[in-house]
TrEMBL record:
Gene Ontology CC entries for this record: cytosol
EC number(s) stated in the UniProt entry for this protein: 2.4.2.8
Annotated Phosphoribosyltransferase domain residues: 18-162
Keyword NADP: no
GO MF annotation terms: guanine phosphoribosyltransferase activity; hypoxanthine phosphoribosyltransferase activity; magnesium ion binding; nucleotide binding
Pathway field: Purine metabolism; IMP biosynthesis via salvage pathway; IMP from hypoxanthine: step 1/1; Purine metabolism; GMP biosynthesis via salvage pathway; GMP from guanine: step 1/1
GO biological process: GMP salvage; guanine salvage; hypoxanthine metabolic process; IMP salvage; purine ribonucleoside salvage
Pfam families in the record: Pribosyltran (PF00156)
Catalytic activity: GMP + diphosphate = guanine + 5-phospho-alpha-D-ribose 1-diphosphate; IMP + diphosphate = hypoxanthine + 5-phospho-alpha-D-ribose 1-diphosphate
InterPro entries the UniProt entry points to: HGPRT, Hxn_phspho_trans, PRTase-like, PRTase_dom
Source organism (scientific name): Pengzhenrongella frigida
Name of protein: Hypoxanthine phosphoribosyltransferase
Length: 182
């Protein structure tokens, strides 16, 4: 549709609620990492929005780096077999790393990423995610900061895509059935 609004079914989490939750998470991160040197690692492309909005709320000085990964396997489903498309620029030795994600679905991407980054001798590795779907978990991942737990339904917006679209919606929502049928 010419207007993304025509493709929406409903707003699940408004821009205001996302922002208010990020205020709380940023305050926790500031407290937890006080006096430490923090490296934020955003996972492209979904994490772009939460990375930008979270980083701007922090008072702790941070470095921001990015990784692009791709899971092998069928279309929209994560397989757990991950390939690095763009690696970090930063050396992780003795660094405090905070992985920033938009969503944890099956957990397979993050569980792989976690063990990959942990093998690089960092000082610590933790995870911050805006959304988590507990009912979709195939593997348990220990997550330090979670914005919202949501039901196991397909959501878009705030970085999350359907066929690469809708990432630029400022809120999290569900798509109308006609979008999938078109
Ligand atoms: C999505 C999302 C997470 C991952 C979560 O990324 O942004 O990174 O899937 O799924 P999982 O918990 O089942 O592994 P995607 O692979 O679609 O790439 P994108 O961020 O570029 O959209
Ligand atoms: Mn992603
Ligand atoms: Mg995606």
């Amino acid at each position: 549709a010419a207007d993304m609004g025509d493709d929406l079914e409903r707003v699940l989490i408004s821009e205001e609620r996302l922002g208010a939750r990020l205020d709380e998470i940023a305050a926790q991160i500031d407290a937890d990492y006080a006096g430490k040197d923090l490296l934020l690692v955003g996972v492209l492309k979904g994490a772009v929005m939460v990375m930008a909005d979270l980083a701007r709320r922090l008072h702790t000085p941070v470095e921001m780096d990015w990784m692009a990964v791709s899971s092998y396997g069928s279309g929209t489903k994560s397989s757990g077999v991950v390939r690095i498309l763009k690696d970090l620029d930063a050396d992780l030795t003795d660094r405090h790393v905070l992985i920033v994600e938009d969503i944890i679905d099956s957990g397979l991407t993050l569980s792989w990423l976690l063990s990959n980054l942990r093998s690089r001798n960092p000082g610590s590795v933790e995870i911050a995610t805006m959304l988590r779907k507990p009912d979709a978990a195939k593997v348990e991942v220990d997550v330090r900061y979670v914005g919202f737990e949501i039901a196991n339904e397909f959501v878009v917006g705030y970085g999350l895509d359907y066929n690469e679209r809708y990432r630029n919606l400022p809120f999290v929502g569900t798509l109308a059935p006609h979008v999938y049928a078109d």
